[in-house]
Inverse folding.
């Protein structure tokens, strides 16, 4: 599939997916949803992809959410749009067993904010803003924000953000724990790719299993998690990266992981 | 015995039977059903074997019956050919069967699962009775066993819509005993099989017989039958050994007679 609304490029085992409609603040349209779904599917299958960076094109926006003009023209059912377009994407981002970094290079509003929250890590530019914009047009948060927000910031802050639709600047985002790190705008790419590089050189299978187990932990009791963890550790222990890790440690040298 | 459509390996006290028709997603044609019965019959007659595990291969447990085999037949031919007969014979198998469901168990595949005695599923297993989409109904027990497992209302919904359901849902609705990560399905099934293999074999077969009977009798009749069965076991050496060992505070040693 050749992409019209996103960019897909792999370098050094790092896949960068760029939401590429900068003229409309990278708003999401039907085409983009299809392309993103395909892109994530490819990324999951491609063993050369060991870390994913999700970003917006240009300096102004990460993603402004649903393209409202298209939405008006389509007159589609909201439920259908979410069930067929956004929800599968959120599920993909959460389930792909590879680390996904949201590089928040500009405003992340509405579903754009949800996409950012779905990522495993977030690095934010000091000039960017996060906005639960839905309520500003009489809608409610979607694409998972109701699920992610209270788990990150607690009920009171989650309600405040979703019900007021206020701009959340980088300082507040960092304080609230919504992002892992805030960096000056001009250093955002550098910082993001240092982290991506580190993750891409890591024990990819183990990282994927950590993601899987953390996902599960939210709905398990301690007893159940302990059992699950033990099984997952068994799986991790059979990877060649584990053997390499132990050898490197004993030989007092840095490990060379292959993601296998 | 060498089988064409399945691989049977005998392990410590149990047999592992893997359906092996990968090119057809393990579709259950007459050959598979015949061989399944033969393999289980073999286990029933092998005193070193106490139970079996049935499982699939990486892609599927069993994705249905062989549609091409029956698509053109008339109702008279279906009656005459009675191609599901080997499947019916599975009801005669005396030793416990564990279904280790690793992938798609659809239509006849789901019915094969339900013909087993204990069901362990992988997190990624998918179940379903989609026969309605082919203009027919489940013909190997689906309308009966699914209903007994999950209740009338859930069974109606699943078989009328023909939709697939997940292992977690199957568990929630009472169809499946346990859901485990895919990587641990066989290990879990083997642990269970080994456990059953350490129990008094005649008693184990009596358990299977009595639980299966309970669906066909009134409670009064069933309680009587259970009591009769219970009493009959006092003619076995294993009962004497089991109770003696308990009294002597030691582990019993079973002889299977």
């Amino acid at each position: 599939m050749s992409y019209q609304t996103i960019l897909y490029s792999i370098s050094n085992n790092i896949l960068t997916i760029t939401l590429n409609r900068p003229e409309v603040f990278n708003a999401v349209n039907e085409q983009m949803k299809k392309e993103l779904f395909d892109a994530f599917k490819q990324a999951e299958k491609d063993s050369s992809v060991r870390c994913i960076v999700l970003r917006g094109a240009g300096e102004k926006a990460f993603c402004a959410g649903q393209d409202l003009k298209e939405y008006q023209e389509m007159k589609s059912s909201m439920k259908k749009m979410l069930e067929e377009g956004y929800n599968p994407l959120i599920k993909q981002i959460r389930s792909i067993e590879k680390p996904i970094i949201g590089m928040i290079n500009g405003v992340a509003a509405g579903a754009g904010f949800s996409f950012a929250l779905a990522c495993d890590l977030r690095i934010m530019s000091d000039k960017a803003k996060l906005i639960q914009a839905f309520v500003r047009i009489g809608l409610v948060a979607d694409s998972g924000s109701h699920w992610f927000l209270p788990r990150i910031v607690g009920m009171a802050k989650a309600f405040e953000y979703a019900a007021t639709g206020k701009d959340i600047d980088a300082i507040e985002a960092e304080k609230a724990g919504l992002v892992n790190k805030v960096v000056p705008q001009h250093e955002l790419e550098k910082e993001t790719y240092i982290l991506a590089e580190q993750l891409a050189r890591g024990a990819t299978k183990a990282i994927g299993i950590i993601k899987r187990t953390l996902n599960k932990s939210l709905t398990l009791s301690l007893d159940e998690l302990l059992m699950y963890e033990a099984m997952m550790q068994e799986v991790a222990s059979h990877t060649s990266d584990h053997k390499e890790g132990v050898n490197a440690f004993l030989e007092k040298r840095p490990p060379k992981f292959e993601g296998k | 015995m060498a089988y064409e459509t399945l691989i049977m390996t005998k392990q410590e006290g149990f047999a592992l039977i893997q359906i092996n028709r990968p090119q057809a997603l393990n579709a259950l044609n007459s050959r598979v059903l015949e061989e399944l019965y033969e393999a289980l019959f073999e286990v029933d007659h092998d005193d070193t074997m106490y139970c079996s595990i049935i499982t699939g291969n990486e892609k599927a447990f069993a994705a249905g019956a062989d549609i091409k085999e029956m698509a053109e037949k008339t109702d008279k031919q279906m009656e005459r050919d009675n191609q599901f007969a080997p499947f019916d014979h599975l009801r005669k198998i005396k030793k416990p069967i564990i279904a280790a469901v690793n992938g798609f168990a659809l239509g006849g595949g789901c019915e094969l699962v339900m013909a087993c005695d204990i069901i362990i599923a992988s997190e990624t297993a998918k179940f379903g009775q989609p026969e309605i989409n082919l203009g027919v109904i489940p013909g190997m027990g689906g309308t009966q066993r699914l209903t007994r497992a999950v209740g009338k209302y859930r069974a109606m919904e699943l078989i009328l819509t023909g939709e697939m359901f997940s292992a977690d849902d199957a568990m929630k609705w009472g169809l499946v005993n346990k859901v485990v990560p895919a990587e641990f399905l066989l290990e879990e099934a083997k642990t269970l099989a080994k456990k059953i293999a350490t129990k008094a074999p005649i008693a184990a077969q009596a358990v299977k017989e009595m639980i299966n009977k309970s669906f066909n009798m009134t409670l009064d009749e069933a309680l009587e039958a259970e009591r009769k069965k219970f009493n009959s076991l006092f003619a076995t050496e294993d009962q004497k050994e089991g109770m003696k060992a308990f009294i002597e505070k030691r582990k019993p040693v079973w002889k299977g007679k």
